[in-house]
Design brief:
The chain is built from six helices and 31 strands. The chain is mainly beta and about 625 residues long. The strands form six sheets. It has a 16-stranded antiparallel beta sheet, with no helix packed on it. Strands 7, 8, 9 and 10 form a four-stranded mixed beta sheet that branches. It has a three-stranded antiparallel beta sheet with strand order 1-2-3, with no helix packed on it.
Length: about 625
């Protein structure tokens, strides 16, 4: 198409011109008027063109098809052929990102040119494109903890496609999101380019690493005690999921009032700081206590739960008095890290009195041949327990324990079959347990669960009292082997959302289920005992016994104040079976399996010694008040 001499195009604009003769020109020597992009030259207004696009020609494309480019332009044959249409087509194609950005990033007007040619009343539109290069291959550098194959799956640009920075930005976001979902922090480097010679697209990924870990306020606790609880190490890729798990593990040491983290992040680097105000871990307690089992008893305890600053526990407990008017001593040592695999060792040596029941055991039935004059059943245990445990991954664990002790029961005024509970002699028990623990804070959980399965093998060589009624069940004496099995499930659901930090309190719905059975002849004191503060509230201590047991509990725990929690509970359970079913001491009559229910309310007061617990439960035999330390489960 020829242009009149006075028609001028802007240098910065593509060819977008429509030239025609004005009506005035027909009467004045056919004066030419040119309408060019940027506004008309000096000329009277003219009527809008009514021409339609009859043909579209695409030039400069190598990878993209002409039809695809025409579709992307937003117009097609039959549309109006005017300046606005040509401008729309140019803008639509420019915004696709497929043209010009790679070769002339600073000259946007050269990326796409659109102009028309009119002949014989027909309009042909020509599209000239500066097509970006095709991607021949894709290389990912610095992927770190995520495999390259996983990264290539989330991006849209593939081998053979045009390099498109707009699509690449979306792919960069997808890559960073992939890392974030797995807990990592990653950014795409600024040198992300397509090599024009080889066609290789290089995607540089910078994954944040831990450059330093700082500890503040932990004065007594040694640094290695804290760091060994952490899976996050200097030089590792920073993972927020692992970091949060580390914070929970540190809080679970029960050595610190709070765990306050800080993350200072720069490109590729993370400086982690932990502020750990320490608890008071050394305690000397002297005083007196009262319970329905022991009655008034003097008590002295010296304990250090961060012995030598290594997280070790060393404690000495002395008790004197009580109903039995006997003394107890127990020395305990716990080493939480025996080796690099986090094997823990616990050793206890003791000479202690166990108060089994809460009231006198004298029967109403006359005794034919008294074997004693005491009115209380107590066990004097002398021995030791040693156990080792080891985590298996983050959530699983296993433990082995060995208990060796000599048990002596007080002489009681019991006769006949009732006297068979009076057993003296050595007992050896080897036990094993595996567990799965997903609780957020084991000492005070609001979410997660705990499951365990245990088995123990025991041997006892028991002697009857020196003088006993001929009606005593002699079958329970002498050497006997026995085996015990147990299953336990605990689950915790926060009714007010997850904790934001370890010290937060939440309203919690808590469940517990415990079941046990046995094989062989159990000593009376090795039976399952149900009833009292730790099992079936609303009933006397050790109210039900047997070679089998079942127990279920539901609690709603609601914070009432900063250190005060209210509890509503319901327990159901029983113990039954075994050679002591016919024993009937002071109304402790046994029978077959018959679930017993107890419900009530209680309070928990948080103290440096742990939660102090006071519960009142009502069962089928009346009401009972229970006082103890720590949560029931």
């Amino acid at each position: 198409m020829k242009y009149p001499r006075n028609c001028r195009r802007r240098k910065s604009a593509p060819i977008l011109s429509v030239c025609s003769l004005s009506a005035a020109g027909l009467f004045a020597g056919a004066q030419s008027v040119c309408l060019a992009q940027g506004g008309p030259l000096s000329a009277p207004p003219v009527a809008a063109s009514t021409a339609k696009i009859s043909k579209i020609i695409v030039r400069g494309n190598k990878v993209l098809s002409s039809s695809a480019i025409i579709i992307a332009s937003g117009h097609n044959i039959g549309d109006a052929c005017n300046e606005q249409t040509l401008e729309d087509m140019k803008n639509n194609l420019t915004e696709t990102g497929n043209f010009g950005i790679q070769h002339n990033p600073d000259d946007k007007e050269s990326w796409v040119k659109v102009y028309s040619e009119e002949r014989n009343g027909e309009c042909t539109v020509v599209i000239d494109v500066d097509e970006n290069d095709a991607i021949q291959n894709i290389t990912v550098t610095g992927p770190g903890p995520i495999k390259t194959e996983a990264i290539l799956k989330v991006i849209h640009l593939k081998r053979g496609a045009l390099y498109n920075p707009l699509h690449m930005r979306a792919d960069d976001n997808a890559i960073e999101s992939l890392y974030n979902k797995q807990g990592y922090i990653a950014v795409i480097g600024q040198d992300e380019t397509l090599d024009p010679k080889t066609g290789v697209l290089t995607i540089p990924i910078v994954v944040t690493r831990v450059s330093e870990i700082k500890i503040a306020k932990a004065v007594h606790t040694r640094r290695r005690v804290i760091l060994r609880e952490m899976k996050t190490k200097v030089g590792d890729y920073f993972n927020r999921n692992k970091w949060n798990s580390d914070l929970q593990s540190i809080y679970n040491l029960n050595l610190f009032e709070d765990v306050v983290p800080r993350e200072d992040l720069t490109v590729g680097q993370a400086v982690l700081t932990l502020s750990l105000p320490e608890k008071r871990t050394g305690n000397i307690n002297v005083g007196a206590g009262y319970s329905s089992q022991q009655r008034l008893i003097g008590r002295a305890e010296i304990s250090q739960t961060n012995f030598r600053g290594l997280g070790e526990t060393l404690s000495l407990l002395l008790e004197s008095g009580g109903i039995a008017n006997q003394s107890s001593v127990e020395l305990t040592f716990v080493e939480p890290w025996l080796d690099r695999k986090h094997t823990a060792l616990s050793v206890a040596v003791y000479d202690k009195t166990v108060y089994r029941f809460a009231n006198s055991l004298i029967n109403a039935t006359p005794v034919v041949n008294n074997v004693g004059t005491a009115t209380r059943y107590n066990e004097q245990r002398i021995g030791s327990t040693i156990s080792v445990s080891r985590p298996v991954g983050r959530k699983y664990g296993a433990a082995l324990s060995l208990r060796a002790e000599t048990v002596h029961t007080d002489n009681l005024a019991l006769g006949g079959v009732d006297a068979s509970i009076l057993q003296n002699g050595p007992v050896f028990v080897l036990g094993g347990i595996v567990n799965h623990d997903t609780r957020d804070i084991p000492i005070d959980p609001v979410s997660g669960g705990y499951q365990s399965m245990g088995i123990s093998f025991g041997h006892a060589n028991l002697n009857p009292p020196a003088a006993y009624d001929p009606g005593i069940n002699t079958a329970v004496f002498g050497p006997h082997a026995f085996t015990k099995f147990s299953l336990e499930e605990r689950h915790f659901v926060s009714l007010t959302g997850p904790r934001k930090k370890p010290t937060d309190s939440r309203t919690v719905l808590a469940f517990r289920f415990v079941a046990g059975t046995s094989a062989g002849t159990l000593p009376f004191f090795e039976q399952y005992l149900v009833g009292g503060a730790e099992t079936l509230r609303g009933y006397r201590e050790s109210r039900f016994w047997g070679s089998n047991m079942m127990l279920g509990s539901v609690e709603i725990r609601k914070p009432l104040a900063r250190s005060l929690t209210g509890v509503l509970f319901t327990d159901v359970g029983d113990a039954w079976g075994g050679p002591y079913t016919n024993v009937n001491i002071s109304g402790f009559q046994q029978g077959g399996f018959s679930p017993h229910f107890g419900s009530g309310l209680g309070i928990r007061v948080r103290t440096p010694l742990g939660p102090i617990r006071l519960d009142y439960g009502i069962g089928s035999e009346g009401g009972q008040t229970h006082f103890s330390i720590g949560n029931v489960f």
